[in-house]
Structure formats: structure tokens, C-alpha cells
Design brief:
- The protein is built from 12 helices and 6 strands.
- A two-stranded antiparallel ribbon has the order 1-2. A two-stranded antiparallel ribbon has the order 3-4.
- A hairpin with a 6-residue loop joins strand 1 and strand 2.
- Helix 5 packs antiparallel against helix 7, helix 8 runs antiparallel to helix 9 and helix 9 packs antiparallel against helix 11.
Length: 420
């Protein structure tokens, strides 16, 4: 963010001046909430100087500034509403794209129809990202130059060439890559490398035993009657991620886009805030998107009248969720420390109040996850075919998913809110 207005007060009218007074027409910039600068130019064709006559140029500049800051106008209100909708679409798309991809790659083991259904939602998330990017571009152009700015080459170039414009371009490209790059290729899960099983064996997270998870004979067919483990059922299919490099490239560009707008470009040391924000976005999306996909797969299997495999999904997702939740919490605390100037801002500013609401909603989801992990999953391990336990697991996961969708919406409001 650059550019400023300096002013003096006294008995005379307010006098405004740019930080570098010039005698010729030159635009002055005013910072925007998303990290870009909007151009404001006085109607007289020149800028007001602190030492100039306060009755002419300064008065004109004051009127221009008041018009620029007038958020009650139809154009400003429309741009603000569209920007809010764009942020919601962007975050929902991020949760679906990153969280859905991680869930499909590392958690989901089953038949091809389940995998295809999850990947379809990942593709739809790519569309959300593209729509959100276009909406964000229109909102920012309108905020800078009004609706007529949509047909102004200079206004469009100013926005596109800004830090926010680069972030928007990255998100649109990421959405296109995710939507087109997800390929429906699977292979036998029992014969494929399994990072979740490796992590379970390394740190002892989750429930159940992974012994024999990858020792099934090559001739094993799906549906055959044989010993299974909580992590891999012989005959399960897994998404072959190596066939979808474009989707993961898109996910990487999507994560990087968050380094070029929002509080990342306006608060604290840029590199520290950028790293913390990157970790927070990726891990939070992994957790939230994973919970939503978990609820979706369980509900889908239940509607089809097949075994929900709640134990398998629970023990596999617990490994991913614990790592993601811890990393997201640590990065979130770091971001809060960087953004806030004092602890009192947590309850005295809109940003802090929204943060409290977000933490409460996250606590609800985290409590549900802890209950499933500590209580339901161990019980399912002892009685994997207990339908009542499976129903309780599904209910808790659904509550988690609803809470995390609400967290996503609150986060969209949090991005636009000020901490002071």
C-alpha cells in the first residue's frame, strides 16, 4: 500500500495535499482494504497543496476525497457487496480444491464411484475460484473508477497491474488448472504407497492396526472375502495423483495467491506474515475441506445403502486432521500476533470480534473431531459393524462440517475487517 493524504486543521477549510505536491495534474492514491491503491484526482486538474489557498483547490480536493470515501453511494455499496461475495466464493473454492484434493489423495479408499464423486467437487471448486476471481476484479474496478471503470482501459490496467490484480489472476489460473487438471485415474490401494499408514506407524496417531495393509496378493479382486485392516480394505481403489499434475500445480498457485492481498501486504513483516498465512491457508483448508468431504462420502454411502466404512474413514482422516489442525492453530496464533497492536483490540475492534466468533466455531468443530477420535473411533475398532456407532460418527462429522462452513464465511468477513 502506498500513497497518502496530508492535511492541516484550523479556522479555515480543510486543506489537503499529496505527499509530493506538483503543479501539473497528478493522481493521488488512497489505500484500499484489499491492499491496492485507488486513484483520486481533483476536478480542477491539479492537486491541493498545504500552502495553497484553502478556499479553492483544497476545497475541491476535499469534495473529491469525500466522494471517494462515501461508502453509502450505490456504486460503493454494490462494489462492497460484490467484493464480499467474491471473498466467500474464493474461500469456499479454496477449501473445496485443497481440502478435497488432499482428502481424495490421502484419506479416501473405496470404489471408483466414491472417488469420482469427490473429484467432481474438486472440479466444481475450481469453477468457484474462477467465478470468485472475476467477481473480485469487477468489484475492485468498480471501487476505483465506478461502474464506468469497467470500460476504462486505464482503470482496468491499474487494477490488473496491482498486487491484488496479480492475486486475482493467480486464482483464476488456479481454478482453471484445477477444473481441467483433475483426472479420474485410480489404482489398487493395497499396492500403492500410503503416506497415511506410514505416518501412523511413525507417530502412532489414530486407531487400529496397519499390519498387512499392503501385502495383498496381486490377484486380489474387489469384493472378495478376506481379512481387512482399518486403513486399507483389500480391493480398494485409490486416486492416482501422478496422473493429475495440473490440479496440484493449480493448488500451489492458489496457495501462493494469498501472499499478494489482504492483511499479508498491510500488516507486520511481509515475509513472516506471508509464511504464516501460507501455512494457515493450506492446513486450514485441508482440515475444513476434509471434514466436509468426509461427511459427504458417509452420507452418500448411506443413501446408497452400502457400508459407510466409518472406522476406515475415521482412522485415516485422524492422521491428516491432527497434523493440519495443529499447524493451522500455530500459524493462526502467529497471524493474530502480527496483526494486532494490543490485546484489547480482540474485543474492541470488528476484526477482533469476528476473530472471537471464528475461534468459537473452530472450537465446536475441533471438539467434535476430538470426540470422534477419542471415543467413537476406538469403539468402532472394537465393534466395526455397529450401526449405532456409525450413526453417531456421521452425526458428529456433519456438525463439524456445518461449523467449518460457517468458519469459512466468517473468515471472508475477517479478511476485509480492520484491526484498528
Amino acid at each position: 500500500i502506498d500513497g497518502s493524504f496530508s492535511f492541516t486543521t484550523g479556522d479555515s477549510a480543510l486543506a489537503l495535499a499529496s505527499t509530493a505536491p506538483e503543479t501539473t495534474a497528478s493522481p493521488t492514491t488512497a489505500p484500499q482494504a484489499d491492499g491496492t491503491s485507488a486513484l483520486v484526482e481533483s476536478a480542477s486538474g491539479s492537486q491541493a497543496d498545504v500552502g495553497s489557498d484553502p478556499g479553492s483547490e483544497s476545497a475541491s480536493a476535499a469534495v473529491e476525497l469525500e466522494d471517494f470515501l462515501d461508502t453509502t453511494s450505490d456504486e460503493a455499496a454494490g462494489a462492497s457487496l460484490l467484493a464480499s461475495a467474491a471473498r466467500v466464493l474464493r474461500l469456499l473454492g479454496t477449501v473445496g480444491a485443497i481440502g478435497g484434493s488432499v482428502f481424495a489423495a490421502f484419506v479416501l479408499r473405496g470404489n471408483r464411484r466414491d472417488i469420482r464423486a469427490v473429484l467432481d467437487w474438486v472440479r466444481r471448486s475450481g469453477v468457484l475460484l474462477m467465478v470468485g476471481a472475476v467477481a473480485a476484479l469487477v468489484a475492485q474496478v468498480t471501487a476505483v473508477g465506478g461502474w464506468s471503470g469497467l470500460w476504462s482501459v486505464s482503470t482496468l490496467s491499474d487494477v490488473v497491474g496491482s498486487s491484488l490484480g496479480f492475486a486475482i489472476a493467480l486464482r483464476f489460473l488456479a481454478g482453471a488448472l484445477i477444473n481441467s487438471g483433475v483426472q479420474m485415474n485410480t489404482h489398487h490401494a493395497a499396492h500403492a504407497p500410503d503416506p497415511v499408514v506410514a505416518a501412523k506407524q511413525l507417530v502412532g496417531v489414530g486407531a487400529g492396526s496397519a499390519s498387512g495393509a499392503r501385502t495383498a496378493p496381486a490377484s486380489f479382486e474387489s469384493g472378495a472375502s478376506a481379512e481387512t485392516t482399518p486403513f486399507v480394505h483389500y480391493g480398494d481403489e485409490a486416486w492416482q495423483t501422478s496422473k493429475s499434475p495440473g490440479a496440484f500445480l493449480g493448488a500451489g498457485l492458489l496457495a501462493l495467491s494469498f501472499l499478494f492481498d489482504g492483511h499479508t501486504v498491510s500488516e507486520g513483516p511481509r515475509w513472516l506474515h506471508g509464511v504464516a498465512n501460507l501455512v494457515h491457508v493450506v492446513t486450514a483448508a485441508t482440515w475444513a475441506g476434509g471434514v466436509v468431504m468426509l461427511a459427504f462420502v458417509i452420507a452418500r454411502r448411506r443413501r446408497r445403502g452400502v457400508d459407510t466404512r466409518a472406522l476406515q474413514l475415521g482412522v485415516r482422516f485422524s492422521v491428516v486432521a491432527i497434523v493440519a489442525l495443529v499447524a493451522a492453530a500455530v500459524a493462526g496464533v502467529g497471524l493474530t500476533v502480527v496483526i494486532l497492536d494490543s490485546v484489547s483490540e480482540i474485543w474492541t475492534t470488528p476484526w477482533g470480534q469476528l476473530l472471537i466468533l471464528k475461534v468459537l466455531l473452530v472450537s465446536v468443530a475441533a471438539a467434535g473431531g476430538a470426540y470422534n477420535h477419542r471415543v467413537i473411533v476406538p469403539e468402532l475398532e472394537r465393534a466395526p459393524n455397529d450401526t449405532e456407532l456409525a450413526t453417531r460418527f456421521r452425526t458428529v462429522v456433519t456438525v463439524e462440517a456445518v461449523a467449518l462452513v460457517a468458519v469459512t464465511v466468517v473468515t471472508a468477513l475477517l479478511i476485509a475487517a480492520s484491526s484498528s
